[in-house]
Amino acid sequence: MDGHLFSDESKVDGYRFAGALVSSEDVRRVRREVLTWRVGESRRFHTSHERPEARERALASLLRMAGTVELVVVEHAKTHPEFVAREACVAGMALWAGSAGVTHWLLERDGPSEYRDRQTIAALISLGVIPRLKYGHAPGVSEPLLWIADLAAWLWTRGGEHRAALSPLIVHHEVVTSDADEAAA
Questions:
Q1: Does 81 sit behind a cis peptide bond, omega within 30 degrees of 0 on the bond before it?
Q2: Tell me: the pLDDT tens digits for 13-69?
Q3: Cβ-contact 145, 31 below 8 angstroms
């Protein structure tokens, strides 16, 4: 599959990355659908800022795209320091992406983390651990497919019925550790 991966993170009660995988031939169609998630004159959908009804509509829309959109969650139980947890999640997501045929990966922009993200991904590529892929960062307002990852990260973090609602779309879930965790063990 020529897959496009769009990811966003949640930093609540741990650290997790959610990724939305869409095949290249479905990107335009899925983008058009996700654009309908916006409310009123809003330029984007941001799950934590939306009313429950808007989140429910977005989730229903996402569930209708099961099979076209697949979700991945990579999380790290440790939150201190945050950059270590993020690096472990980025590496975990990159390893999964490398085995899943991902050719393009767009991460939602998180200013201070971008440099480390690029270093982590580039190192895995240069070591031959994952195949070459195009990757970069963008603000959520510029790419609606990042909104899927935002919704998935938010729902996964909420747990319970919210997390269960995502189950038809989840193709991979992993809890990663960092090198610092392994050294302490």
A1: yes
A2: 889 999 999 999 999 999 999 999 999 999 999 999 999 999 999 999 999 999 999
A3: yes
Closest CA to 18 of 61, 100, 76: 76
**Residue 153 CA: distances (Å) to CA of 48, 114, 124, 160, 168:** 10, 19, 24, 13, 15
Judge whether 152 and 18 are in contact, CB under 8 Å: yes
- The string over 104-136, giving b where at least 16 C-beta atoms fall within 10 Å of a residue's C-beta and e elsewhere, is bbbbbbeeebeeebeebbeebbeeeebeebebe
Distance of CA 116 to the CA centre of its chain: 17
Q: Which amino acid, 119?
A: Q
CA 174, 180, 183, 185 dihedral sign is negative
Residue 106 to residue 164: CA distance in whole angstroms: 26
Using CA atoms, how far residue 126 sits from 21, 87, 94, 103, 121, in Å, is 23, 17, 13, 16, 9
What does pTM read for this prediction?
A: 0.94
Q: Which phi and psi (to 5°) does residue 68 adopt? A: -95, -35
